[in-house]
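Hello forum,

I keep getting stuck at the same step: I have a sequence, I want structure tokens, and every attempt I make locally crashes halfway through. Rather than fight my setup again tonight, could one of you with a working pipeline run this one for me? It's a single chain of 128 residues.
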Amino acid sequence: MTVTGSYGFTAPPEVVFGTLTDPDRVARWLPSGVTADRAGPDRYRIRAGGTVVVCEVATVPDDLRLEWRLADRPGVHGTFRAEDGPAGGAQVHISVDTPDAGPDRVLALVGDAMRRLQLDVSDNFNAG
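Reply #2:
Ran it on my machine without issues. Output:
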């Protein structure tokens, strides 16, 4: 099953992508109850409740795209892409493939993460 969503940001796409891919900021935008520790240059150990999974991440900076997959769960992967949006902001497109979770649960987790990312981007962009 593929779940998709689009989210608007008031900062430029490069700022959104930079905030998303900054390893020191990951914990700020993860959904509530989820934590991450670096497990290598392109790997994170993700914890949610009693579940621990390894997430492999690849970035394509020229396209402002991030791709991820769970190393131990075949078929669970996704993409994040930032592009120009209205009024100098960004539009972010997300796609998540998972055979395990229902679309409502996936959309709730992604929506929570995007709200948190919007707040962190706003703090980062407007800091001064």
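The radius of gyration is 14 Å. If your local run keeps crashing, start a new thread with the error log.
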